[in-house]
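If your schedule permits, I should be very grateful for your opinion on a structural question. I have a record of one protein: its chain in single-letter code and its fold written as discrete structure tokens. Kindly check, if you would, that the fold set down in the tokens agrees with what the sequence suggests. I remain grateful for any guidance, and I place the record below:

***
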Amino acid sequence: MDIKKTMLNLEKNGIKPYFVQTKDEVVPLVKTLIHKGESVSNGGSVSLKETGVSRLLACGDYDFIDRTGLEGEALRQSYIRAFGCDTYFCSSNAITENGELYNVDGNSNRVACIVYGPRQVIMVAGVNKIVKDINEAVLRVKEKAAVYNTKRLSCKTPCEATGRCISLDKNNPFLCDGCQSPQRICCNYVISAKQRHKDRIKVILVNESLGY
């Protein structure tokens, strides 16, 4: 894991990197990147909860678009509002040393906002998310991220039951290989490489292990 190389390549790719030593430093940094009264939203993320960013968004200083507890049309409308917000917060499933972001979603509201929509995207990720390349990123999702998130979300999938993606039974599993469960969370795969809109995506790397 080469943190310096990762940050240099993120910068080259038009993604603004930040580095902090501990999770306690994340919220003070975030406060410098957003303004009170701005519209903010977030994807589901253990890392945001562990760093206190989730509490910050809901503190009342911001126009927080919160989808918690919503269903049906109300949920859909919250996704649409989030797509046009000032700042969208999330983590990343993997960050390569080549400066690429790899993210896999089920509903895919998160990857939609990463690609386009919000004025800026702020990702918070522990250094445990850094991998060598896209091949390692694919394996990281199949071996860790997807497994832990299906358990967190109580999804009825083979990986939730067995602790591993069924595609790992193949000699060389392709990134899209997986189960046929109706609750599968690996549906859309997004690699963020060179960014045309420089610094729209910001990545806060924390020198700790965070999330999945």
